Structure formats: C-alpha cells, structure tokens
Amino acid sequence: MRYLVILLILLSAGCRSSEDQGHSHDEAGEHSHEGEGTPAMAFTVWTEKTELFVEFPALVVGQTSRFAAHFTVLQGHRPVREGSVTVSLIRGNKGIRHTVDGPNSPGIFTPALQPGEAGSFQLVFDINTPDYSDRITLEDIPVFASLAEAAGSLPKPEEGNDISFLKEQAWKMDFQTRPATEKEIYETLPTSGTWQVAPSDYRTLVAPANGRVNFSRSSLTEGSPVSKGQVLMTLSSSGFARENLETEIQKARAELNRMESEYERKKALLNSRIVPRAEFEAVEQNYLVAKANYETLSQGYTGNGIQVAAPFDGYIKSIASVNGDYVAQGATLLTITSHKSSMLQVQVSPRYARELQSIRNIWYQPAPGTWSSLLAKGGKILSVGKEVEADQPLIRIYAEVNEGVEMPEGSFTEVQVAFGNPGLSTVVPAQALLEDYGEYSVIVQRSGEAFERRYVQIGKRNGNEVEITQGLAPGEVVVTKGAYQVKMASMSGQAPAHGHAH
Fold first, then answer.
1. Residue 500 domain-assigned?
2. Which structural domain, as residue segments, surrounds residue 299?
3. N or C: which end of the chain has fewer CB within 10 A?
4. Residue 146, Cβ neighbours under 10 Å: how many?
5. Region 129-145: what's the mean pLDDT?
6. Nearest Cα to 120, choosing from 88, 144, 137, 98?
7. Is the overall model pTM greater than 0.70, yes or no?
8. Are 11 and 143 in a shared domain?
C-alpha cells in the first residue's frame, strides 16, 4: 500500500506543468472552453510593433465575455511580460471598456466585457508597456441579442490541415515572423570578391629623423589595435657622436633665437625707414625657415627622443622596423589602417561584359552569413574594368564599401552583382525557405496558432531576399526563424488545438 501511494503521488506530479501555460486542457490534451455552449471568435492582427492573437466567446447582450489576448512584441517575437491592456467596445461616441494591469501569464491578458446592447461595434485594444505603446482596432464586431442568435449567425469552425503551434511554444524559442513584401528585384550575377582596405584608410608612418627605434610596448605586433594619439615608438639618438638629435635641436633653437633677434631688429629699422623692404624680407624669410626647422625637429620630442604616435584609431597593418634598429630619416616605420571603409574587388567573366555596362547594385557579405547592399549602406562603384590580359583573364570591378567589415583583408566573400531593369515581385528572407530534394516551401502563419506549410517556386536572389514566383502573395506572414520546428510539429501526428479557456 505504501508503494501504491508513492506511485499515485508521482503520477499526480507528472501531470502538472512546470509553469502556467495560460490554457486549460481536456483529457485528450486539447484546449478546452469554459463556456462550451457559446460560439467563439478569434482574430489575429499584426502592426509594425505587435502581433495580437485574441480569442473570446461571442459578445452577447448581458453576458460577460472574457478575452484571451496574446500580445507578442514582433521584434524578437517575445511575449509582453509587463504593462496594461485596455479593451474597449465602441459605437459612435459611446462605449464600455475594461483595463487589466498585467498579464495572467507572460504574454496573455484576460480583460472582460459585458455589452448592454446589440449591434455592430469597434473593438479596440490599447497596450502600454514600459518600452512602447500600441493600439489595435477590430472593425464591425457583432454583439448579439441572444445566445441563440450568436449560434445561428457565426459559422462553425472548419476542420482543416493547419499545423497547431501554440504561442507558448513560439515564445520559448528563437522564433520570428515577417510578412512577404512586394519589392523591386534585379537579375543578379553570383560570383565572389576579395576584401581590401580602402587606400584612404592607410597611413604609413616614416621616421622624422635619424635614430634608434624603441617600441613603446613589447606586444606591438601586426593586427594590434591602436588609438589616436597613442605613442607607438620612440626614435632616440642618445649616445650617437654624429647626427645626435638633441644636439641638432639645440643648434636649431640657437639658430632660431639668432634669426628671431635679427628679424625683430630689422623690423624696427623698417618701421623707422632705415633699411629697405627687400633687405627686411630676406631676413624674414631666413627667420621663417629657422622656425620651421626647429619646430620640425622638436615636434614630439621628449627627453627620451621623438615620439611616433598613431594619427587615428585603427589597427597596425604592417611593421617595417625592428625594435632597437637604427633607421634613417624618411624610412618606413609602420603602416596603420582604420578599416572604417573597405574596398571590394570583384572578378567577373568577360562574357558578362554587356551586363556589366548597367550595374545597379552589389550585394556582399561583411560577415559570414550576413548580406548587405552597397547602395543601401552608402557605398559606391569605383570602376569597372574594360580590358583583360593573358595573366588577368577576368574583368575587375572595384567598389567602396561604407561599413565596417569583419572579414580580414584578402579574404573572399560571396557577391551578387545586380544589373538591368528591376521588376516587382513577392520576396521573402532566405531564412524562410525550407528545402527538400530541390523543392522549396515556407511556413505561412494563417492565424495566431495556426500555420500551413506552403510549397513555392523561387526565382532571383537579391542578397538575403528571394523572389517567390508562385505560391505566396504579398502580405502573407511567413516564419523566418523556427520554421523547421513548426514543420516538425506538423509531423508529430497531434491534432490541432481548438481554442483557449476564457
């Protein structure tokens, strides 16, 4: 008997969910209705910010209808966890409303209304969260005079082949939807490109004087990040018998002082009209030369030598000197690049020379798996080659990319070169496509928790967007993340759910 009691306790615990699912279930595991005799209504509405999936018993005069309003933040497809929802039933300037200050469970709000008269009304949902506010309006919502009228007027739900995928399932995973859109789409030429640093982003630092190179830190290597004004190395001539920088600076300072005194003296004599202007201008020129020479020698000089600093934020591309080596004035020390912009070199077969005369855009990947548009990012095509040679049999296209590129210089990227005149087509993100043995399909969201697997025909690709030539219309909502999980739900053999508790 003791073991039987323990077994019953374990079975009872196994039937409880680890968290509130927001729905009640019958013995078959399907969603139940609290008011089974009242026909139900359901709507799914998308705004730019929110998806609302709401179910409720038909509105009948004198009866209270409780709403199961599922609010999803479209960005990230996550449930609304805090905030208030007000539902209003309005006709003309009159109406009733009810506000709930928080969800019963994440994403699910349950306001209730008891209409006082029959007719056609607006049903308005106002949601206010700490992050944003939104309003969703349903037009021509009927309020019936009796339950019998509601049962006779509303159609019975049809059994279909929809895939049931609950909001609670979608909220717990990486899930996202997006409507199919109608956009201009171009013919594209798929090829590859090579990343290069734009010439304007290079800066080669040279030795301002003769001296011995002393690195500022031992970890100064190619690829090291540097900040504007950061001291990278110091040139010192300490201990040199000849070409000693400190001695040269002292000589230049003495020469500057001498020429400055001569300049001031001649200037006073010029004002007194004792010396001619030509003689003063010659002295002035010598003074300016002495000043420039001293400033050049002393710029960046400290007691340890002349400091070489980074002119901008960036990375060390190459180091041409060795720590401790002697370098002559003008010798290359290192090269820095900012990587604020990059140059993309694309190579195309000469047989596409005619198409390349009307290039409209270039799509590329600044990081693996991410597509960008050259024109959308403010980049531009620099040149298109006109000739090929025996050792360079491909036509080269150079484009300036106006965004940070995570790929190292010299690496390859997938490229799509668009040309010709575009046409209007239905497009979806490439992530929405499911492929089985060369056939493509998408998961279409028909309502809040009802989905359909739809086979489609695809056409051109423009970056991350794919043309749908058959099987989908603009405005239909497709799953862009989590489509595979919905597909697997369709293969589970479970019957679709039939509503929620109200």
1. no
2. 239-303
3. N
4. 13
5. 96
6. 144
7. no
8. yes
